[in-house]
Amino acid sequence: MTKISTATRAAIKQEFPNLTRDVKKFPVRDGEEPWTVREAEELAALLLEDKERLERELESADRELSDLLRNSGDGAGDDQADYGSSALEREQELTLVNNMRDLLDQTNHALDRIRKGTYATCEVTDLPIGKARLQAFPRATLSVEAKAREERRGA
Fold it and tell me: Do the beta carbons of residue 109 and residue 54 sit within 8 Å?
């Protein structure tokens, strides 16, 4: 288990004032132990850290993308290889920014679910997502079965 600092624990209590009560309602799959406050705090701390990191990285990536777009014609001249290289760089940076935004959205959604006391419940089936799944991927919103069905449908 990860050691949570006193400052982090205080931030978690402020951010999630009902966590001690709500964690008792977090469902588990057959054979899993009930959620403990400590386990929920560890996941909340991880998600809050990820949120801060992603916001910083996204701000930096947005600046880089803006610079690339603003300077897209500089230095390219008539050389198509330079133009293609610049276009590829812009496309890669745009993909990176979009992926970071998606991950930040997923992180915020997971934090909202903790706040609302609906964390650990599959959004499709209303069944437990599974403690082990959430500890491996805290942003999960679907049970393994619901995720498998979604992937089979090509969603």
Answer: no
Distance, in Å, from the CA atom of 100 to the CA atom of 58, rounded to the nearest integer, reads: 6
Please state the pTM of the whole predicted model: 0.82
Per-residue pLDDT tens digits for 76-115? 455 666 666 667 777 888 888 899 999 999 999 999 999 9
Compute and round to an integer the Cα radius of gyration of the chain: 20
Residue pair 122/142 in contact (Cβ under 8 Å)? The answer is yes
Orientation angle between helical segments 80-116 and 37-70, nearest 10 degrees: 150
DSSP 3: P
Rounded Cα–Cα distance for residues 119 and 46 (Å)? 14
Q: Are 139 and 79 in contact (CB under 8 A)?
A: no
